[in-house]
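Please check the following.

. . .
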Amino acid sequence: MKLLAIYWLSVLQLTLTCVTAGETRAPARDGSQDFDFLIGNWKAHVRRLPDRLVGSSNWIEYNGISNHKKLLDSNANFEEFEVDNPEKHLHIKARALRLYNPDTRQWSIYLLDLDKGVLSLPPVVGEFNGNRGEFYDQEQYKGRANSAAQPDKRATPRRDRSRNSAW
C-alpha cells in the first residue's frame, strides 16, 4: 500500500512538472513609454476644488500651458505647467518629474516646487493597465492624512484627461 502511494505521488509530481514546463506566461508589459502621449506642448484647462472634503461644489477654472519633455531619451520625463484665473487673480505654476522603474514596472511622479526648492516625498506611484492609469499617494490636508487616487486616462490627440480624488 505504501509503495502504491509513493508510485501515485511520483506520477502526480511528474504530471505537474510536465504541465508547469509547458506553461508560457505572458511577457511582463514594458510601461516605459506610458507617458509618451504627453510629450509636446499643450493648452491646459484645469478645474480645481479649493475646499475639499467638506461637500463644496465651488470649482475654480484656469487656462494656460503644459509642456512635456522626454529626458535624455530615457525612462523619464519632465512637465512644466502654468495656468491662470484672471478674474480671481490666481496663478498655479508646477513642475513634475516622472521616473519609470523597469524592475517594479511602475512610475514614480515627483512634484517640484522650484520657488521653495522642495521635492515632494513620497512620490505618487502607479502604472497603466490598458488605457487607464492608477496612481496613489498619501497627502496631508488640513492636518489629516488622506489617501489619494489619481486615475488617469491616456490622451487623445485633442485631449488629455486626468483627475485627482481624495478620500
The radius of gyration is 24 Å.
